[in-house]
Amino acid sequence: MFARISNMFGANDDNEQGRSSPSRKADSRGTNHGGTNPMHGYNTAQCQIDNSGSVLEKIAGLYAERLMSDIVLVVGEREFPAHRLILCASSDVFQVMLMNPRWNESREQRIVLQEATECVEVFELFLRYLYTGRLKVSHTTVLPILALADKYNVKDLIETCIKYMKLNIVSASKQNYLIAWLQYTLTCGHSDISSVCLNHFKWNLEQVATHDDFASCDLELLTTVLSENDVVVHDEMTLYNIVVSWLHQQAEKLMSPSPVTTPGEPPTGLASYIPGTTSSGVSCCKLHLRRDSSTSSFDSVDRMEWLTYEVMKFVRFPMMTPRQLADLLLVPLTIKYKEFFVTRMAIGMSFHSGQWDRVKEIIRDPEPSNRLLFTPRLYTAEQWSASLTVDNLPCLPAYHTRTLVFSTPASASELDCDTQLEWIVELYPKGVWFRKFYLIVWQGTVEVPEAVLRTVRLAVTAKDVEYARVRVAVLVFAMQEGIEYIVNVVSTNYIFSADDNLLNLDDILPFDNLNDPPERKRYLQEPCDSLKIHIVISPLSDPKLGAPGIT
Asked: So which domain of life are we looking at (predicted)?
């Protein structure tokens, strides 16, 4: 704010200095007879004085004491005396509204602002920030404050709110704010924070689904997540149960006698951030993506059927075992929508029985969700993954290596589930050291100098594998406020063969973060200062059985 106020007066100051500078130069030349410039001696005693804090307190006092206000903002049932100068210096939107003569607000002393209920409750905090630059935020207040900052284009406040949200994703999820944060930031284009929220949602789905705000998850958002390959979940049956839980919650909303909002209709959209042309109000954006059930042409029964089809088509039934598919026949939801579920389950059985022509036919289907049915997610079930824990990480020597050996099925199909692929995994949490060695070639002996890589590396070696096209993923765990969660996922598709049986994944964590004492605390778990990772290896195709390439 200081910078913008200074800019308002900066041009006049420059002009004054420009007009007076010639006379000063003339005086300097006229008085410099003794070879000594008296102004030079004065300049050496200059010092920079910064009393900006005191000035800021005086400006804050204008707001606190309601002194010399020249405008009144009416928000809800409250009135806030304010100063045009401060509002215009802090906000581009206020500047246009209050200084542009084409706007009615520029000629009025009392302006009504129409804000969402959540924004009304924090408007005083927002206004005080414009005067003082100080603000105390919480999980409850940060989203409506961000909405006000977006609407009035207060960029420094936007950055402050986003920074707070990034640092508090885990606790926000625990306190039922994650879905609201995610849906708002996705809609408003805050891609940096929305990607962090979305990743936490995908990588910690089982944890997020246990919280109350999961019921408010938008249909479009849920199906977007379900279509992703990097969703971390125990197995596909677990994901199915999560979707069933969400559907039950939507059914309860529809049966509620009070007005409710429910997924299923096109989004109502966000109100514009640009003020209207009348003083009757400027509407703040809505804080959540909501659907108005009153506009639906469906009754509750039809809508639940439609919702079930929309979300369940993203469940990958072929990734369930035949036993799990058989158990679904007894589930009430399957019985209720028998034709739909039997069709999807039959696709799963075709995959497990090796009916590859049928599988190819489904993959060629133009429906996008069908092409994803045969691609595994990041399953943490024991058959697809293994956990590696490094205890007492701070005490380990540089270039320490930890090794793990495990095996996974060569195919997701039950037809060849007995064939196993063996993997050797080596973790380098403290860098990689290549010793000096001599290479013997036909020209002679060549010395290869030593090299050190500052990276956290995971090396995966396929043992006795002729051909395997797989997805390798590393899940890195962290702790915050006593909650264990997945903080990072590094994954890649790779083809292992007899000639190429080694994959190096570098920077699975930032090296400096893991080896710097203050930074590594979030990655280490008590009581042994342990680093925990999970390695998931999933087959993507089965050339041995003539299966189609699955991506």
From this structure: Eukaryota
What is the distance between the alpha carbons of residues 383 and 218, in angstroms, rounded to a whole number?
A: 33
CA gap 81, 67 in Å, rounded: 9
Q: Is 425 exposed, middle or buried (0-12, 13-18, 19+ CB in 10 A)?
A: buried
Q: Kindly tell me the burial class for residue 446, based on how many C-beta atoms sit within 10 Å of its own C-beta (0-12, 13-18, 19 or more).
A: exposed
Sign of CA dihedral 393, 512, 505, 536: positive
CA distance 309 to 317: 14
Whether the pLDDT of residue 257 is over 80: the answer is: no
What spatial distance separates the first Cα and last Cα of the chain, rounded to whole Å? 52
- The more confident residue out of 40 and 295 is 40
513 neighbors 506 (Cβ within 8 angstroms): no
Q: How many helices (H) and strands (E) does the chain have?
A: 22, 18
The answer, yes or no, to whether residue 312 has pLDDT greater than 90, is yes
Angle between helices 191-203 and 155-167 (to 10 degrees): 20
Q: How far apart are CA 162 and CA 184, in angstroms?
A: 12
The sign of the dihedral angle between the CA atoms of 31, 34, 37, 42 is: negative
Residues 327 and 321: their CA atoms lie apart, in Å, by: 10
DSSP letters spanning 341-381 = HHHHHHHHHHHHTT-HHHHHHHHTSS-HHHHTTTS--EE-S
Q: Where are the alpha helices (DSSP H) in 313-461?
A: 322-328, 332-336, 338-352, 356-363, 368-371
Pick the CATH number of 380-545 from 2.60.210.10, 2.50.20.10, 3.40.50.150, 3.30.300.20: 2.60.210.10
Q: Are 203 and 233 in contact (CB under 8 A)?
A: no
Cα 115 from Cα 153, distance rounded (Å): 15
What DSSP letter does each residue of 161-221 carry, written as one string? Answer: HHHHHHHTHHHHHHTT-HHHHHHHHHHHT-HHHHHHHHHHHHHTHHHHTTSGGGGG--HHH
465 secondary structure, DSSP code:
-
Two structure tokens written together for 416: 């060849």
Enumerate the domain spans of the chain.
Answer: 380-545
Give 407-432 pLDDT, tens digit per residue: 999 999 988 777 899 999 999 999 99
pTM over 0.90: no
Averaged confidence pLDDT in the chain: 83
